[in-house]
Fold these 4 entries.
Entry 1:
Amino acid sequence: MKEISAKEVQQRIENGEQLNLIDVREVDEVQGGHIPGITHIPLGLLEFRSHELDKNKPYIMVCRSGGRSGQATHYLQSQGFDVTNMTGGMMSWEGKVE
């Protein structure tokens, strides 16, 4: 499984990169603060909404601490997606939040 640190994601965003971030936390968690520009797909709905994703784009999975996003990363990899887990999740995030 490919991994990237929250700091690396923050640096790439601050350098102007357009990243495809998918937050797999629950609705109330995302409403409490999320990285600007994320796509929100709760982990429990990922299997049913994976058709909304493009297999030609790389994705970075985000959750609270890195566990659920790791599960999401494994699942999407098994479905043929280019996906990376953000280690440490939002607990490690020091960048902007909405």
Entry 2:
Amino acid sequence: MSSLNRGVSKVEVALKWDPSPRGGPPHDLDIVAATFTADAPTVPAYLVHFGSRSPDGTITLDRESRTGQGFGDDEEMTLELDRLGSGYVRVVVGVAIQQRDGHRTFGEIANPAVRIMEGYTELAEQDLTGLADATAATVAEFTREPSGSWLFRPSVRGFPDTDPQSFGARMGA
């Protein structure tokens, strides 16, 4: 853990998992970021997921995988918190499993893990297999201090029976 008293400014969230067994339907995990305002601290102002980006370009999904194939990270999202409009006071980041081909949980996916970095400093790394019954999970929360700096807090919480669409509405609670 780095010294976070100075705040965080630009963060990368990286997600990885192993492909499904040969012949099985692909496992598709997605990084989701929800932004919140002071007026509505639990209702997302907007979501970034599935290859989208924030309206102002401060949160972008840089790499997306629908199978987990390849080496290294399968999905990456960049959050430029220092450029995020002053009306936003909270950003929650999570991971959701697409449920197209039946019900899947993190316990059924090989080696799901998320890493959060600021530059070369690792802020957190989380193996998601501990959330075996969950179909989605929050992994991080960033909050804006009155001074304007952003603070990071690991926030690992599993959600059973949640698809990516409904997860966005629930992740800020």
Entry 3:
Amino acid sequence: MAAPTNDERSLFTLIGELPDTISNLVKAEIDQIKAEVTYKVKHFGIGSGFFVVALVVLPFLIFTLLAAAIFALALVMPAWAAALVVSGVLLLIIAVLVWIGIVNFQRGAEPLESVESLKADLDALKGTGDYDRRY
């Protein structure tokens, strides 16, 4: 007698094969996730390397542009005054950036609303807190 095909297997046979099928499916999904993560990590690493190289070259560009600005201003004023004007502009930019940084640090130092909400929820579960004193 010939072995039953997939369409002719009994319900009990299919139920018996279910754990192996699920196990194989989970293993295949895990292998796929590993492959995708490896692919993404590889490309994030390559991209990060290029960003690092760009950041290494960036200061040279900035110094060159500052020198060009000083030389351009030196055409209409003394060189020392041109360097002083460019330095003043840089000082103003630095001051604005520091101010923006301080404002953002102050915003970041505020307590998280979700933490406060979670504490209130836990107090409600315990039967303590301000929720029962509103009325």
Entry 4:
Amino acid sequence: MAADLSQSRPDGPIILFDAECVLCSANAQFILKHDRTGHFRLASMQGSVGDALYRTYGMDPSDPVSILVVDGDRVRQDSDAVLSIYEGLGYPWRLFSVFRLVPAVLRDPVYRWVARNRYRLFGKREECWIAPPAYRDRIL
């Protein structure tokens, strides 16, 4: 069943992530903790909103090759998505934008290698990570 994205799309960027991946869910927790202004919303690829958005942008949510950050009509993926998240968290995390000096053609293969091997390197949860009640309003 497809999600009604017109009702669930918030103002501001949506981070699409893998809630079964230990690294990805740890990153989601980090974002929620450090995004003090509530700039980002998160949607797991296992949920209806995340599933629909992955499919909208031509990705298979059962085998995603990248994290996505959807901000209006702009979609970022791979290392660009990760850097846009840290930039959106403000200082001091914004300092990671220095990695934009490294061309994406060099950054993205490293990102993709980690993404392809994320379960082997960091583990896979038997159940999807669920945000604590204090953050549920930021989870789609």
